Amino acid sequence: MGLGPSIKMTTLHHYNCPVTRRLIFDPNVDFAGVIENGVSENYDAKVATAEATGELAKSLGLDGAIVAIDGWGNHHIDFVNVIEQLGIRGIPSVGLSFIGLQGRLVATNPYVKTIIDFNKGTTGYESCVVGQNNLTDLDAYKAIQILKSKVRKSFAYRNKAVSEAPEHVTGLLTRQYAPIRGAEFGDHTGIADGVLTLRRGLETELVQNEPRIKAVSLEWIRPDSNKRFFVNSNLDFMPVACKISGKLGEGVTRQLDGVTVMLNGVEDVSGFQPANIGSSEGILSEQVKFDEAGTPASSDIILHMDFLFEEEEGRTAEGIWAAHQMADRIIDEIRSVMTEAPVSSSEKFVMMSRPSKMRIGLIKVCSGLGNMYDTAVFPNQPGGLIGATLTREQGNPPIYMTPCEVLDGVIHSLI
Description:
By secondary structure, this protein is of the alpha/beta class. The protein folds into 2 domains: 11-160 and 352-414, no CATH class; 173-345, no CATH class. It is 24% helix and 32% strand. Strands 4-3-2-16-1-19 form a 6-stranded mixed sheet, with helices on both faces. Strands 5, 9, 11, 12, 14 and 15 form a 6-stranded mixed sheet that branches. The protein has a 3-stranded mixed sheet with strand order 6-8-7, with no helix packed on it. Helix 2 crosses helix 5. The chain starts with 10 loop residues before the first helix and ends with a strand.
């Protein structure tokens, strides 16, 4: 038990995180930031990570926390352990998880009191439709409102001294949107008159240097295309974005508006479809719920990357890493010409210190199990992988992130 297609938080979902978006724009909370909490295989490691997460939450001075997870079963052990460690330290929490019928908690404790079930299906069971049971903006809204009520009623908050320190800006990220209305392959990569051209044959050059990948095919899927065709199991959805100035979490990021990258894959010979629990191969229009935080908009052009893994490499962490890294290298070629793309609109994410407001944090419980489900953090580019570190290789410790860093794509999902 672990992660299924319909609940997984893709890289695009973290980049558009509904909870982070809600909290950063909420004038009535002091948003302390995000803690990424890694899921390990070993029980002692699970306990140690939860305890460290509780200590980090305490050091951040949290009055309350939202704990969000995109797994169940084994993952719920980490989930309830984190909630327990928060409760021991007097920090109220609200959990966000898939429960339904299939994902009922395998463990609990006296501090697990409020969980919002983001199951959207009618059966209560996991499905193989990517995005069908994703955490949504409405789920985020419910969790925040319930948490505020719990914090107001908590003993610690009612007896907390009210700070008179002034509110002030602690960080700023500007996301620029460059509209793309068409896409094609050509002799050179470039952007002109709203049309993105990707150099033909780029993928062949990259495959020659990657022994775990036998081949990769690229195609453009346009919004008006008939999406009733077969695709292999989904590995991820990624934004096409690059830094114009500053590092991740600050400065200016430019994103191609109207383009999303879709990664799919299958093994050679056996035809094994890479997955953690339930693969998502099938008819595209039936296997992806569009217009969610972690999936393309119906109006998006999709850059479809279909990876053919060498036999058995589609079920290894190294093979999955190779595919995601190759995808990032292809996107890098697009990033190299994105300064040419005219910007039509922009969005500002302003981090504010509000000492007189309740101090809220978000804890994201993300897998670091290895095999075909890892999480990498702090890549070179928004939503990318190159330059990132696997949380598994660090021992899955809790990692602090600013809200702007999360919304600038510092979390990359690998499956």
